[in-house]
Amino acid sequence: MSNDRPDRPLQMPPASSETKEAFDDFDRFARRGAWERASKALYAIPEAQAARFVDGPDGFIISVARKRRSVLSALSSEGQAAYRLFYDSDAKKLLDQAEGATEQATLERLFSSYFLTSVGDNAADRLGDLYYERGEFDRAADCWLALLRERPDSELPPALTTVKAALALARAGRRSELEALRAEMGERYADEVVTIAGRKAKAGVHLGRIAAESGPAADAGPASSAGGGPAPELAEAVAAAWQVKFAASVTAGMTPVELSQWEATSFSGAVPATAVEGQTLFANYLGHVFAVDLASGKLLWRSASFHNLEQATTQGQSQMIETNRFAILAASGRVWTLGRDVKDPNYQAEFRLACRRAENGDLVWQSSDLSDYAGIDFVGPPLLARDTLFIAGKSSTSTSSMYGGGGQDGQPRQYVLAIRPRDGKLLWKTEVGIFREGERYYWYYGPRETNPQPRLLYRAGSVYVDTHSGILARLDADSGAVDWGYGYETDPSQSQSRFIIIFDEMPQAAPSTACSGPLLLGDLVLIKGLKSDRICAIDPDRMKLAWERPIAKSARLLGVDDATLYLGGPELAALDLKGRSLRWTAPLPGGCHDGRLLVRRDGLWQLTPRGIFEVDPQTGRVRRIFRGQDTGAEGGDLILTDRLLVAISNRTISAYPRRPPGAEKIAREGTGSPRMRGAE
After folding, report:
1. Which of 151, 273, 378, 495 could cross-link to 328 by cystine, CB 3.0-4.6 Å?
2. One-letter-per-residue 3-state SS of 435-465
3. Residue 336 and residue 407: Cα distance in Å, rounded?
4. Do 364 and 334 contact (CB within 8 A), yes or no?
5. How far, in Å, CA of 49 to CA of 68, rounded?
6. Closest by alpha carbon to 69, among 173, 3, 184, 149?
7. How far apart (Å, rounded) are the C-alpha atoms in residues 52 and 48?
8. What order of strands is seen across the sheet that includes strand 53-55?
9. Are β-strands 622-626 and 637-640 bridged in parallel, bridged antiparallel, or unpaired?
10. Which range, of 288-292, 518-522, 668-672, averages the lowest pLDDT?
């Protein structure tokens, strides 16, 4: 999928036409054996273009620096010899300058542009050491693997390079590559003695120890709501332990006309975004943040009265607010929320990030007070990993024309930002792409089409962002540097924005499916774009498409285990990963277009307008239906804690006992064990 296709809604920062022509000139001269002219074509590319992007193999979009190194490595032996004749002296001068504050930048330039020279291997080895010392294990591994695979003529000891690469792969969590390296190089250099980190042993011994000590990668993705311990066991009729009726607080005292007006808005169907830390549940209801004690259901604090939301329904522009953009995250005594003032008359007002103290709701910082975030409209839920807050954003349209603006070309930009959680300090901001379109539609009343909202995933030192606009990108978590992008099929861009007004008597559109986040399946990353008709399994470390499968555009990813991928959409479905065929589908009331399900090996649970449905993951059969005390609501989210199953709808937050009364006593007496509820 070319980055330069004009109908693509999002384009990664493109290289200049002169740069692309330089690569074409290189290919033409190299085929003719005109090595000097071929090399000069490459070195006519300005260094400022090194971080821009061009098409790579198999749908991947790679940096100019990576492309340059790739084409040079593919030269014939005659071409490489000529290349060294022309550029060895330049490379040696650069290597002599690689000291002090400019050491890393100089070594990176040598690795990108002069890797095939006689000193390029030394530069790559030193750069790998620097990356490793800084904890950038992915990049260190790439340097040493390039030495092993692209510089067989290097005089550096291959056994030592192999062990160093294995260490970096282990630290980066790239287990399958570690095993492949051990199988490929282990026997070849098994008996060579290597000293590393003060340990002297044969290379085979080092590799065996590294493989034994490296466990599965410690990956952090979106917070799981499935919980551990036994599955929830809901009796047919059990009273809620407690219930927070927030919607009733909004509608209290409304006249019939006001109530009708409220129910006609998208606000009435909004489900609060929720997060749990310890024994407290935090919720973001249309920008009104509150905390609930899980043990008692007591409201601990709230940022504003729910009744204030009634005022927003009298303002027409509130109908165009995307209620699914409100988000929340809680950890380490802090709560981060994404929201906007629903009473703001500007329908394009920015969504802002704020941090509060979990104990009392006091505001610690908010992005609107920090100049680094001026003109940024945050989109998509934040992600906390390695004590850093990652979030996507785009150039705001609230201060420019309705078609957006963000660069000199007037087009809005897609960014990923890294933020220090405690004080909001911007650590880095990286441009991932340039939009070729603004917001697709502005909806006024009625069901609305979901707009793309990026979803983030952290894995082994890298942040992955599925833009849901046709691009998956991988960024270095420490520096924000974009490693590569992958272009997948999606709907073409729209040339202009449209307002859509739906009245009660007009035919109602089918509900649209929510954006889903990337999922990890071993070493693979699974993605399914909002407007894409493909599920793609990406091998991110080898930059390969492992497999893809056609799927309905209305489908979304829910969860995955070793054998099955679970999908939402008009129906709940299961995809067999071995044959990649649909194993079963299960129609549920209201469909499975949005909401947070419990996805576990022992069952699937979904909150619907007719109660909580428990589904057998092997057959798709509905095992039981728990009606609960909020039937008729529009469905929503489920969260499983150690003792409660919490159901969040557009009307209430209801907490039910995870197991029926007496189940714990029966289990204890039946086993004769004094332990309480096993893993709980």
Report:
1. 273
2. ECCCCCEEEECCCCCCCCCCEEEEECCEEEE
3. 29
4. yes
5. 11
6. 149
7. 8
8. 53-55, 60-63, 482-487, 471-476, 462-466, 455-459
9. unpaired
10. 668-672
Residue with token string 């969860």: 559
Structure tokens at 607: 């909150």
- Quick check: helix, strand or coil at residue 411? coil
Average pLDDT over residues 654-680: 50
CB atoms within 10 A of CB 228: 11
Q: Return the H-helix or E-strand segment holding 480.
A: none
| Residue 361 identity | G
Residue 524 CB contacts under 8 Å (≥ 6 apart), including other chains: 537, 538, 539, 540, 546
Interval 364-387 mean pLDDT: 95
Looking at every residue in the chain, the average pLDDT score rounds to: 86
524 contacts 537 by C-beta, under 8 angstroms = yes
- How confident is the model over 121-138, as a mean pLDDT? 92
Neighbours of 634 (CB within 10 A): 18
CB 421 within 8 A of CB 389: yes
549 - beta bridge partners?
535
Given pLDDT bands bounded at 50, 70 and 90, which one contains residue 558?
very high
| pLDDT at residue 443, as a whole number | 47
Structure tokens belonging to residue 130:
């620097």
Please give the residue that has the higher pLDDT: either 298 or 219. Answer: 298
- The closest of 506, 548, 512 to 530, measured between CA atoms, is 512
Of 311-325, 410-424, 593-607, minimum mean pLDDT range: 311-325
Instruction: Report the C-alpha gap between 199 and 637 in whole angstroms.
Output: 52
Strand pairing of 376-378 and 388-395?
antiparallel
Amino acid at 468: H
Whether the CB-CB separation of 259 and 268 falls below 8 Å is answered with: no
Its sign, for the CA torsion 43, 48, 51, 54, is: negative
Q: Are 446 and 509 in contact (CB under 8 A)?
A: yes
pLDDT of residue 312: 65
Around 321, how many Cα atoms within 13 Å sit in the side-chain half-sphere? 29
Burial class (CB in 10 A: 0-12, 13-18, 19+), 495: exposed
Task: Give the pLDDT confidence of 440-478 residue by residue, as tens digits.
Answer: 554 445 445 668 999 999 998 899 999 999 999 999 998
Question: Given the DSSP bridges, would you call strands 10-11 and 426-435 parallel, antiparallel or unpaired?
Answer: antiparallel
Phi first, then psi, for residue 187 (nearest 5°) are: -70, -35
Q: Can you give the C-alpha Rg of the chain in angstroms?
A: 28
DSSP state of 464: E
Q: Are the beta carbons of 318 and 264 closer than 8 angstroms?
A: no
Structure-token pair, residue 653: 């937050």
| CB 379, CB 373: distance < 8 Å | no
Closest to 592 measured CA to CA, from 578, 613, 577: 613
- What length does the chain have? 680
How many angstroms separate the CA atoms of 373 and 411, rounded?
Answer: 18
Mean pLDDT for 217-235 is 59
